[in-house]
Design a protein that fits this description.
heterodimer; A: mainly alpha; globular; B: alpha/beta; eight-stranded mixed sheet; four-stranded antiparallel sheet; 11 helices; binds adenosine-5'-triphosphate; binds iron/sulfur cluster; binds magnesium ion
């Protein structure tokens, strides 16, 4: 186990290095000149030249990379070209918002997807099963922006129950915070719920046919214990990994969802930064996102080992 | 007249509905009974319906695809009609089964201790500590070395023989009145087979449970059983006290199984192979199911299903030409 952890941690370093190079190179392909964006109305070539020099845009790309990575390693992601705020501060401000949204989405996904999958498997071939499958198909095929707009229309405009946009921090007023994030979290989580439901269903179906479930029944255990203890424990082991991997799609889904609901999170930060050619922000956000993603993967692997006695050794 | 049997199966019929609307007649009109403390051997070729019969007793056949009729009476209950709750109270408690597949019958996610104490707590209640002590005692009874340590291990650490011992310990957890052992040794190697068999014999002597022992191994039958039932293509074709079956088999299929040396003192005689194919159970033949392979077949055999006829005390056979001695001389 410790061995495995050490090996995985050692793999993370080159991965992140590769990611950082990739981010930096791809960025060079973005059309537009950041110096021009910053100069704004000013068209004086001297001023533009000065900006270029100040932000080292006139140096070769590898040199620019070296400066950037040196800063990153000491915790300095540079500053936003646009509002001159340190990137680190921007990230510290926006990340919790997206983390809250993401956690709520994943909780919603698990709360819907896993019970629905179990019920569909146990009641295979009945209306329950068809209902759950229909929901899954709907969840996978419904575009987020459409669902988001429909929810806003129903719950904000028609019923007036929930705010259509905006964000309140959890620490400030948790009720208002939940009200503001429940719709976007559902939009983000429903596709993952659908994926989890399908996998839970097929894993459960397989496990319910297994010899050890038959043994559990032969012991006289109630159907409830058989399903919730003996079958579920084995069926959910692979689902944990899947859930953690789905968190990746959640990060990309957040970009669009935060736009729809005007939530000032990570997604909105990066979209704005890309449109403004705000290089330092884009680089910082993508690097942090990649780090989160890699960490989640590691956590998933460790969790998988912890719940699986055969791998625990 | 003997006392009424512990378990009595009457005209049991089991059909499976396959996905492609094909129907398999796995068991067709089986009658069996076992007295308290007696051991019945159930033998027959692969696929003849031995496991399906025993799973029906336990109520473990998949409900969605299985059609069952007949009656299984166990100590006043008709197991095919009892409520799930009552069946749950009987299973693992008064009725227990050891499965054919020791490698996969234990749950990989729980320790063997968890899995044994669970049965004890379900039926006997009491403290966790008490159940654990009993589990250790059971593991000792099935000769698992250092049970105090082994009890906390997960199944993947145990060999096939050890797992089968754990399964036996689990089945014995609540001192069942009827123990069904479905080929408890087939999946194991020869030395282990002998050990498990020895264990079964010990347990039989110690516990006084009635046992239905399913096996391919006629040597095992000769050593352990009081009575034998021979199954062929979903039917019982012959039933007799063990000595009688070995000395004077009255069904051509049994004769084929015994080969030429039906000797009680000769151990580990595997079922001899018999020429020909088992009938297709999606469309079983109308007459005698063994007709296609039988050396004594007559035209009349294929016309109607032969009835079970009595040829001696407690000895019945499903052959219109019995007693066979007259044919050989
Ligand atoms: N759940 C099921 N669904 C459909 N058919 C089944 C099912 N279980 C068993 N069968 C069929 O019923 C028949 C009898 O099977 P069974 O397992 O009782 O044989 P067996 O006598 O125990 O053989 P073996 O000695 O190989 O264990 C076989 O043709 C088998 O394919
Ligand atoms: S009834 Fe006829 S075919 Fe069947 S076993 Fe007897 S002799 Fe053979
Ligand atoms: Mg079998």
């Amino acid at each position: 186990m410790l061995n495995f952890l050490a090996r995985r941690l050692a793999q993370i370093v080159p991965t992140l290095f590769f990611v950082s190079v990739l981010i930096f190179s791809l960025q060079q392909l973005l059309p537009g000149d950041p110096a021009l964006v910053m100069a704004g109305e000013e068209r004086d070539p001297n001023v533009i030249e000065q900006i270029r020099h100040q932000y080292r845009l006139d140096r070769p790309v590898p040199v620019q990379y070296a400066y950037w990575i040196k800063g990153v390693l000491s915790g300095d992601f540079g500053e936003s070209l646009r509002n001159k705020m340190p990137v680190r501060e921007l990230i510290a401000q926006k990340l919790p918002v997206t983390l809250q949204l993401g956690s709520m989405a994943i909780i919603i996904a698990f709360l819907i997807g896993i019970p629905a999958g179990i019920i569909a498997a146990v009641k295979k071939g009945t209306a329950w099963d068809y209902g759950a499958n229909f929901f899954a198909l709907w969840g996978i095929s419904t575009p987020n922006f459409w669902l988001g707009i429909m929810l806003i229309f129903l719950f904000s405009i028609e019923l007036g129950w929930l705010p259509a946009s905006g964000y309140v921090p959890l620490t400030e007023n948790w009720r208002a915070s939940l009200a503001a994030t429940i719709m976007p979290a559902f939009v983000l989580g429903n596709a993952i719920a659908a994926v989890l439901m399908r996998h839970t269903r097929s894993a459960m179906l397989q496990v319910l046919e297994s010899d050890y479930v038959r043994t559990a029944r032969a012991k006289g255990l109630s159907e409830r214990t058989v399903i919730l203890k003996h079958a579920m424990r084995n069926a959910l082991t692979p689902i944990i990994t899947l859930g953690a991997l789905e968190l990746g799609t959640l990060l990309s889904g957040a970009v669009l969802t935060e736009q729809i609901f005007s939530i000032p999170g990570f997604g909105k930060l990066i979209v704005d930064a890309v449109f403004n050619r705000d290089y330092a922000v884009v680089q910082g956000v993508v690097l942090v996102t990649a780090t989160i993603y890699i960490t989640l993967n590691l956590v998933a692997d460790v969790a998988y080992i912890l719940v699986n006695p055969r791998l625990r050794g | 007249m003997t006392a009424s049997p512990l378990i009595e199966i009457k005209d049991l019929r089991i059909r499976f509905h396959g996905d492609d609307s094909r129907i398999t007649h796995a068991v067709d009109g089986v009658d069996l009974s076992v007295a308290n403390g007696a051991t019945l051997g159930l033998v027959g070729e692969s696929g003849c319906g031995k496991s399906v019969t025993s799973l029906a007793i336990m109520g473990l056949l998949p409900r969605r695809t299985t059609e069952i009729s007949g009656a299984i009476r166990f100590d006043g209950f008709d197991l095919l009609k009892t409520a799930d709750q009552t069946l749950g109270d009987l299973r693992g408690n008064r009725l227990a089964m050891i499965f054919q597949e020791p490698m996969t019958s234990l749950n990989p996610s729980f320790t063997i201790g968890d899995q044994i104490t669970e049965t004890i707590l379900r039926h006997r209640g009491g403290s966790r500590k008490g159940a654990r002590e009993r589990a250790i005692e059971l593991l000792r009874r099935v000769h698992i070395p250092s049970p105090e340590r082994r009890i906390d291990e997960y199944p993947h650490k145990l060999s096939g023989g050890m797992r089968q011992r754990v399964m036996i310990a689990m089945a014995l957890a609540c001192d069942p009145q009827l123990l069904i052992a479905d080929e408890p040794t087939t999946a194991l190697d020869v030395t282990l087979q002998a050990q498990i068999l020895e264990l079964m014999r010990e347990l039989k002597a110690a516990s006084g449970a009635a046992i239905i022992l399913i096996t391919h191994d006629l040597g095992v039958v000769a050593e352990v059983c009081d009575e034998v039932a021979v199954m062929y293509a979903g039917e019982i074709v012959e039933r007799a006290p063990v000595d009688e079956l070995f000395s004077a088999p009255q069904h051509p299929y049994t004769v084929g199984l015994l080969g030429s040396i039906p000797r009680l003192d000769h151990r580990a005689e595997r079922l001899a192979t018999i020429e020909g194919m088992v009938p297709n159970m999606a469309r079983p033949p109308a007459g005698c199911r063994f007709a296609a392979r039988c050396p004594f077949v007559l035209e009349a055999c294929t016309k109607a299903r032969p009835p079970l006829v009595e040829v001696g005390p407690g000895h019945v056979t499903r052959c219109i030409r019995a007693p066979l001695e007259l044919l050989v001389s």
